[in-house]
Amino acid sequence: MLHIYFARENIDKDRFMYERIGESLARIQAAFNRVVDGGHPETGDADNRGGTGEPGGVDREPAPQRVLLVVPEQYTLQAEQDAMTAMGLPGFIDFDVLSMTSLGRRVYAGAGCRGLDFIDRYGKIMLVTKLLIDCATSLKAFGGISPSTGLASKISDMISELKNFNVSPQDLEGIAARLGDKDLLGLKLADVALIYAGFESELSGKLFDTADHLKDFARKIPQSPYIATSELWLSGYDYLSPAMKDAVIALSNKSIDTNILLTADPDDQTFSLTNGLMDDLMELARDARIPVRHIRIDDRYAKPLPPALAFLEQNLFSGNATAPPADCGEICLTLAAGFYAEAETAASRICSLVRDEGLKYRDILVLCNDMRTRVPILKRVFAEYGLPVFVDQRRAVDHDPVIEFILALPEAAAGGRAYADVFRLLKTGLTGISRDEFETLENYVLEYRIRGSLWDRDFTYGGPDPENPGFNPAYTAGEMQSLNKARGKVSALLGAFEQSFKKSRSARDRTEALRDFLTEYIGLPERIQTMAQELENAGNLEYAAELTAIEGAAFGLLDQLGVALGDIPVSAREYADCLRAGFGSLRMGMLPTGRDQIVIGTMQRTRSAAAAAVFVIGANDGVLPAATEDDGILNGDEKQRLESSGNFLGRDDDAVYYEEQLAIYRNLIKASKKLYISCSASDMDGKDLKPSPVFRRIERLLPGVAVTKDIISAEDDLARIQYPEEALAHLADHAVNAAAGRAKITAPWSDVLRWIERSPEY
Question: Average pLDDT of the chain?
């Protein structure tokens, strides 16, 4: 049975879902109690959805043994926290929050399947890197491009998309052949088809990736007793690939009940993405002869939105705007002069909300799609205002000392101990060689071009010459002794690694040699643990957590390299290139280090519960919605050409646009008390910027909302006196102007000055 529950964002869908999950868990507990008491487990009185299509009908279903909530990969922790809060429980029995991949593994375990080795995204990228190296002379469009430029990552992502859309290498070859070898698009597709075919050949019978796992998992569902005794809920999905849809249909056919929760409204084109998903699932279920119902969640679960936010929810992207409310005090639009003024205005308002209205930091959500430029500014300004923040983003770690250390070892071996590789290794601080030692060594190595086996012999260049007493050496005997002592440490370190690494031939053996060296010779895990403890003791909890997470990610990636390439023979250089491609693509998501923090995230990635106040920063054209980036193998025009000829190789740009639009709508309506939206009039270089169409639309929809200036342009002195350090910085500006005779220090800055004079801290 498949139930599709849908509603707009003004309906509390989570409360609806968790109430029903709670009822199912109560039934499971009641059935267990009857068995303990000597009776029979419950077989009827299910949480029924009757023939009217409304909850609470008369159908009778067997009681489940467990309830499973399936959410997107990055949302599992938040969903667990939301479930505990909603149901008022410190933990769960007979209830699990899983991703679809984790659910697949449960099915495999329940079926007693040994399964194949699994490679994740990073294992795939490293395998694609090796294939690009092997096929370099056969590639027509990408032959001159190094895999380390990100090409391997892009091709890997495209292969995943092709597999999710059930496009085979042979299908791709056919499309490329029809386009011809004089068409760049045809050449690109031919190259991808070649790598794709090699990728599938390497996986065949030995490995499987996420897409294969999903398809195989869907095929095993009919034989799964685990699914047969489970009730399933799917939440957090706005889009499902064809392979995911097939899995949902298979789950619906086998489980006691499968339910999916969607933000949708068939009467509003704002929800065209999810409306289309709902239609597709209903059609697939009917084709499979699975009973299916789509049910609108009723107004009993309506959220108590303030008037202006309720109006915005109904009219943000629809074309049927009704009369706006007169009172729009809960919405504030701000046009700031620049990025820093925009950030400082947000910080000041947050301080006021916390101090004057009693909000906690965790009640405030800050959304900004410009992670590259604006978010670092937000972090800096918020720190100046004493505001604790957590930035919800996946971070690159390829320049972390731990990663650099691991990478430099095989690169030094492959490159003949070249200067750059050796000193990248030494500068990580993880070799046991002091800064003074390697700095002295560096000068000597550069001057006398030391590399290769020269590291294994005593340095003599530039030292005293016993046979020529009149010679004036560049280094004294004592200095040469110190140099050679440091040289010996480097030689021993590199020699210990190369001894086993260079004897190895396969990727698996080289990985084992590298792992053994890191753990047994260097003791890297213990060193990292010590460093993390020192950071934690110093109060740097975020960096301590990041360091520990990097250790796990680094060794996990090494495992993936050993699995993905397995017994394939690789040279030291090929191994180093594959490892660099893997680490170069590694992105890590961190968990908050405290409970009371302001979350800063993007519209698409950040999944948080309802917030009392939502700040949207950077509501400029091209940022909100985010501009579509042609950063894949195919650009927008090439995708359009393929789609116009009936060749759908993945998600189109329209789907991405509507998903972003839905995320904007959802996040704006998260605000239960205040919604602040700001944009900047210029960028960091002084170039003019335009407000976002979203900003302009809200301005037109709600004429009662005035567009305000930032606190600097408005010369709002009180707004700038929110936190001692920041107030002191502004006071310093006033003092400079007063000293130059350009102005006088007037209230309230004179009051700030008197307070600082009386404060022992300043």
Answer: 87
